[in-house]
Automatic annotation (TrEMBL):
InterPro entries in alphabetical order: Adhesion_dom_fimbrial (IPR000259), Adhesion_dom_fimbrial_sf (IPR036937), Adhesion_dom_sf (IPR008966), Bact_Fimbrial_Adh_Pro (IPR050263)
Nucleotide-binding listed as a keyword: no
Assigned keywords, A-Z: Signal
UniProt organism field: Proteus columbae
Protein name: Fimbrial protein
TM region positions: none
Cross-referenced Pfam families: Fimbrial
Tree of life domain: Bacteria
GO cellular component, one term: pilus
SUPFAM superfamilies, A to Z: Bacterial adhesins
GO biological process: cell adhesion involved in single-species biofilm formation
């Protein structure tokens, strides 16, 4: 009777130490990896970017004639994993143009250009950290509308991120 516990332990040991009894048409799969986060970036060292149009004659707001360059700087920690950088501008959309920022004047919006192309609000655009394109703020009035004199403001957020 003393041999039964010993034989049971021997049997269990031999089962647990033997290789898996896989069939010819199957194998085990091991999944492993390394989760990474992109390096952090800052726009203008976290300081607000102000674009001042100054006094603008209402009659000069035609097409994309009234534009001002947005001076911005991007700084990021070293990009060791060759992440792609993207830029977007987000904010409240105007009531008459989904790609224009709402201003305090209903018939006036601010659109943005990257280089010579209008960019969509809330859409990511690929940028080169070493040579970012110029971005322009452009005043656009609602078609067939009459603007009233007064101060205008608009606000948005310029995002940069690696993906």
């Amino acid at each position: 009777m003393r041999y039964y516990p010993f034989l049971t332990m021997l049997f269990l040991f031999s089962i647990s130490s033997s290789p898996s009894l896989a069939k010819d048409n199957e194998t085990q799969v091991l999944i492993k990896g390394n989760l990474l986060t992109p390096p952090p970036c800052k726009v203008n060292d976290g300081n607000m970017i102000e674009v001042n149009f100054g006094p603008v004659a209402i009659k000069t707001i035609k097409g994309y004639d009234q534009k001002r360059e947005i001076n911005y700087q991007i700084t990021c920690e070293e990009n060791l994993n060759n992440w792609n950088m993207y830029l977007s501008i987000d904010g409240n959309k105007s009531s008459f143009d989904p790609n224009g920022l709402r201003t305090n004047i209903n018939e006036l919006t601010v659109k943005f250009m990257m280089g010579d192309s209008i960019i969509d609000l809330n859409k990511k655009y690929s940028v080169n950290l070493n040579n970012p394109e110029k971005i322009w703020a452009v005043l656009v009035k609602k078609e067939n509308s009459e603007l009233v004199p007064g101060n205008f403001t608009a606000g948005g957020t310029l995002f940069v991120e690696y993906q």
